[in-house]
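Methods — Computational structure assignment.
A single polypeptide chain was analysed. Its primary sequence is given first, followed by the predicted tertiary structure written as C-alpha cells.
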Amino acid sequence: MGNVESWPVLGKIRNAGPIESKEYHLPNNPKFNARTVTQRKARKKAFVRWMMCFLIGSLISLIYRGVSYVNEVVGDAHYEVIEDLIEDGNLAGAFFANTAIMLTLVLTAVSLVLWEPASGGSGIPEVIGFLNGVSAERLMDLTTFIAKMLGVMCAVSSGLFVGPEGPTIHIGALLGAFLLRSLVVVCKRFNIFRSLQRLKNDKDERDFVANGAAGGIAAAFHAPIGGVIFSLEEAISFFNAKLIARSYLTCAVAYYVLFFLETHSHEFDTNLFTEFQLDLSCRISYYAEDLFWFAILGALGGFLGGVFNYLVCTITKLRIKYINPLGWRRILEAVVITILTSMFVVFVPYNYPCTSASSLVKHVADNFPTFNQTGDEICVNRKTSHELFTEQ
C-alpha cells in the first residue's frame, strides 16, 4: 500500500513507510579493517558508547518523570472537576463533563497517530522487529518521537485504562537512535572525530536502540535487571557481552536517576521506591498441603492467560482488517470506547461505594485469630488449609 494521506477526508491512512531490512554484520575485509580498527580509535569508540549509554539512561528517566508529572497534573485536575459535580449531586453533569474532557484528550492522541502512524500502539512489536533486522521507514524518526510522547500524555491523562509503560520502551528506543544520529551529524557538520562518523551503521544503531529499550523498561517498571533481560531474551537475537554490559549501565542509570527524581532522597531505600513497603521480619510459611492449591492456582492462571491471549489476538486481527485501514473508523472506535469508559468511571463508583481498608483488616482479623497488626506493618500467621476446613 502506498503512502495515502488521511487528511482531510479521513479515508485510507498512510502507512509507516516501506519495510526495510537491516544488516547487523559489519564488513570483514582487510581494507575496511585498516580504515576502522586501530587501538586508539577502538578506545575512543568504546568511551563514546559508554557515555552514550549513560546519557540515554539519564534522559529516559527525565522523560518518563516528565510524562508522569504531566499525567498527574492533568489527571488530578480532571477528576477534581468530576468529584465536585458528583458531590453536588449532579451525576449527569459529571458524566457529560468527564466525557467531554476524555474525548478532547483521546481525539488529540488519535490525531497524532493519524499524523504519524508509526507512533501508534505500544511500539514494542515494532522495536522487536527492528532489533531483529526489520524496520519501517519512519519507525525511528523524530516525528514519531514527538507524536509518541504527546500521544502518551493525552491518552494516559484522559482516564482510559492505559498506561505509559509500553510506549516508554519505544520512546527509549527512539531516544537511542536519535542520540546516535545526532552525534554523527555533529561530527560530520564540524568535520571532527572521523572515526565516530562511522558509528552510523545498522549494527551500532541496533545496539543503541537495544540500550534505549532496556532503559525504558528500567524506568517504567523500576526494574534494571528486568530491562536487561527483556532486551536480550525477548527483543534482540544478536548480542554479545559488551552489549549486555552497556545495557546494564543504561538500566542502572535510568533506575537511580528516576529514584532520586521521584523520592527526592539522598539515601537509597528501596521501600521509598515501591508501591508496598517490604517488611522482612514478617515471615509467612506454607505447608505441604498448600502445594496442591498452588498448583491449582497456577493452572487456573495459565488457562485464563491463554484465553486472554486468544481474545487479544482475535480482536487485533479484526481491528487490523476492519478498523485500522480507515481514519474515520479509528476515530469512531476511540469515541465509542471513551463513552463506555466514562459511563463505567462515573456510574459504577457512584452505585457501589468503596470499602474502607479498615473493614477489610477487621474481616481478616475476625476470620484469622492469629492475625497480628503492629502499627502500619501487617503480618498474617495463618492456619493451615486443613485446620480451616475441619473447623467449618
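Note: The chain is about 70% helix and 5% strand.
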